[in-house]
Amino acid sequence: MKKGKILHMFPGSNTAQGFKGFLAENLQGMERVFILKGGPGCGKSTLMNKIAQNMSERGYDVEVWLCSSAPESLDGVVVPELAVAVVDGTAPHVVEPGCPGVVEEIVNLGEHWNQSRLREHKEEIKQLGRQIEASFERAYQELAEMAAVRGEQPPADLAVTEDEVTQLCRGLAEEIFGQEHLRVRKFFAEAITRNGRQSYAQELSLACRRRYLINGAASQVLAGVAELAAQRGHNLDLYYSCLAPEQLEMVIIPDLSVSLVDCDCPELEARYEDVLLNLRPENAELSAEEADAAEQIWLHYLDNAVLELDNEHRLHDELESYYIAAMDFEELDAVCKDIFGKIWQLAAERS
């Protein structure tokens, strides 16, 4: 059996405006949602990783929703073909059921802790929680400084006027669109993590048959195309900038297998079959010296933010150790098997 594809994305991100997340609203339209509750170290990521690997082995495409602070941890796993999701429903991406028992099912992994053992370390756990919150706040401040420096840079000139951008969007709409049904989801293709700036824009956009790369005024073009697509009733996956979360950096139209991507996305590599739309004249670029000076300034703030997120992760690991020591993992295995069974039953009903 051919393995299913696994695509990675961030349902939330650490930004200059604090944590921004879209996890709950992206669950609209799911037939079954398993909401995992419980603190750190109770096995949420382990359970979701097992489900992702198992469903891929069975031939299903899987979306892995990564934690923006520590991408080795998961915020969710989605099997689009079955409209099934298993998600972390704890802060900062709190998820509450809309139709409990019908669509959503709460799985409380905290029931399998030895609470008396946790209470022995009450003060240490409280102190680590306060330190983690402080590290996040310092990281957000560094990202805000970084965004301010980037915002001070003069905008690059465009090779076209605003009216020509509008016409370009309409032309792209005529070339791309055709059918009518609407579902809009919001993600981040990249995030500022404890490992640095991490992007999946290349992976996500290459999963589409057609790809358009926008060089210059990308957010404006992407917003224009997305609006036209929505007017025509097309499904959309919108990906926002982790530095300026109000700005788009990628639009994917899944039912048409089309992606439109900002050329400034990190780690993006062009292919010969890509369509490149260059809206930036050659003489609009900063000099090498100016570009290097600007980059050094915002990299300073980025490095500081990453250090704070790495410190937060170290504190989180220490906090997690108390919960791991108090967790009954045999009971967790039973919970995992129960969720597997319900997903497989749904798959059998679909087939």
Account of the protein in words:
There is one protein chain. The radius of gyration is 22 Å and the shape is globular. It is α/β, with parallel strands linked by helices. Strand 2 (12-15) and strand 3 (18-21) form a beta hairpin. It is 41% helix and 22% strand. It folds into two domains: 6-112 and 328-350, no CATH class; 162-284, no CATH class. The protein has helices at residues 44-57, 115-119, 122-152, 162-176, 201-206, 218-231, 288-325, 329-350; strands at 6-9, 12-15, 18-21, 32-37, 62-66, 74-79, 84-88, 104-108, 184-188, 190-193, 196-199, 210-215, 236-240, 248-253, 258-262, 275-278.
Mean pLDDT equals: 85
Structural class: alpha/beta
- Oligomerization status of the protein chains: single chain
Individual helix count: 8
Relevant terms:
single chain, 351 residues, alpha/beta, six-stranded mixed β-sheet, 41% helix, 22% strand
Summarize, please.
By secondary structure, this protein is an alpha/beta fold.
Could you give the topology of this structure?
Elements (H helix, E strand, L loop, with lengths): L5 E4 L2 E4 L2 E4 L10 E6 L6 H14 L4 E5 L7 E6 L4 E5 L15 E5 L6 H5 L2 H31 L9 H15 L7 E5 L1 E4 L2 E4 L1 H6 L3 E6 L2 H14 L4 E5 L7 E6 L4 E5 L12 E4 L9 H38 L3 H22 L1
Helix pairs in contact: 3-7, 4-6
